[in-house]
Each structure stands twice: as structure tokens, then as C-alpha cells.
Design a protein that fits this description.
Number of helices: 1
Radius of gyration: 25 Å
Largest sheet: 2 strands, antiparallel
Number of domains: 1
Shape: rod-shaped
Strand order of the largest sheet: 1-2
Structural class: alpha+beta
Number of strands: 2
């Protein structure tokens, strides 16, 4: 009987320990980050115009 209780406790602890990290990326209150693409103008070493697309998340 004692080994059954220990085995059950070990199974419950293992289940809970795997469930906690899976919730790490969850955003509460339906507040997900808003991302958009912004074009940034820059010039290279030779003076040529280079347009980069940068992803910005709030």
C-alpha cells in the first residue's frame, strides 16, 4: 500500500512539473503583443540607400 501511494505521488508531481512550463507563453486577460513591420532607411558604407524591414512588438 505504501509503494502505491509513493508511485501515485510521483506521477502527480511529474504531471504538474510538465504542465507549468507549458503555461509560460500564455498571455492572461487576452493581452497578446501587437506586432507590425516598419521600414527603416539606412545607408551603407558606399552611400547606397538600404531599406530594412524591422519587426516591432509592443
Amino acid at each position: 500500500m505504501r509503494s502505491f501511494i509513493l508511485t501515485t505521488a510521483a506521477a502527480i508531481i511529474a504531471t504538474v512539473s510538465f504542465a507549468a512550463p507549458s503555461q509560460a507563453g500564455y498571455y492572461s486577460d487576452d493581452c497578446e503583443p501587437t506586432c507590425y513591420i516598419k521600414k527603416v532607411r539606412a545607408y551603407d558604407y558606399y552611400g547606397n540607400l538600404v531599406i530594412k524591414k524591422v519587426r516591432i512588438c509592443d
